[in-house]
Amino acid sequence: MINIIFQDDGGSYNGQVVQRLGGVARNHADALARLGCDSVFISAIGDDQNGQFFRQHSDKIDISRVKIIGHKPTCTYLAVNVKGNVRFGIVTAEPLLSTITPALIESNEDAIQSADYILLDSNLSVPVMAKALEIAKKHEKQVWLEPTDIDKVKKVFDTGMVGAVTAASPNANEFLRWAKMCNVVVDPFVIDSADSVLELIEKEKSKILLNTSIFVVTLSNKGSAVVYRNKLGQLEFQSLPPPVQMDKIVSVSGAGDSFNSGVIAGLAHNKTVVEALQIGQECARLTLQTTLATSEAITPHLLA
């Protein structure tokens, strides 16, 4: 990670290089475990130095179901971070992701069956996502979808099982793509404020929300737009401020994952949605102020 102002001039710049654990699903697993939840991670790693680094630093997560693959590199992401914002990233993932198959998901059906929540990220292939959603629907499980990238939003719709998703957390650009996939015409400027997003969702709720009971649109320094169903099944619309002042942000990487995890953990511990959102905000605040993808300050006391 490089924290310095730089130009595209081929020069070398002083900065800081940090190796840390990351990945959307892993970030959620870590944050949930730090909050005191039993967190089971179903994935794959390579039999290499990065895979060993993962195993050495995952003591809080149940990684017994992580498959170790020889002759494939562990998924690796290089982020260039300037003043807390990721300018661009380089990822090596496809060789290993191809080893995560529907059969692997099916072999872990018992873990899915016993879970309160399933966190599904869209880095997976469409067939793998479809199998996970099929099993979750079979056992009537709550599925939280993290789209991960604007170009990957389409995947969950391609499964033909988007109706099995009960919560989703797109960022601003992912939301625009989500709305398009739902056949909603959207003015791109709608993401300029949380209130505008909420107005659009209220207008097109039957198309955009599908079967979700919680829908969160994160809007960076504009906060978040949240729609959820209360105990009576009625829709509630709420805007949230940014978790922390922009000048106090160290890195945005992983903050959304920490937010989601706080909400999921709160709901799993029978908190109200409002209380769970507050827990999510605090988790995001802590992660925004560290170079780690999940703040070590996230602990079970946040659920007290």
UniProtKB/TrEMBL annotation:
One of its GO terms (molecular function) is kinase activity. GO terms for biological process: phosphate-containing compound metabolic process. InterPro entries: Carboh/pur_kinase_PfkB_CS, PfkB_dom, Ribokinase-like. The keyword Secreted does not apply. It comes from the Eukaryota. CDD domains: YeiC_kinase_like. Residues 10-295 form the Carbohydrate kinase PfkB domain. GO terms for cellular component: cytoplasm. The keyword Signal does not apply. It holds the Pfam family PfkB. This is Carbohydrate kinase PfkB domain-containing protein.
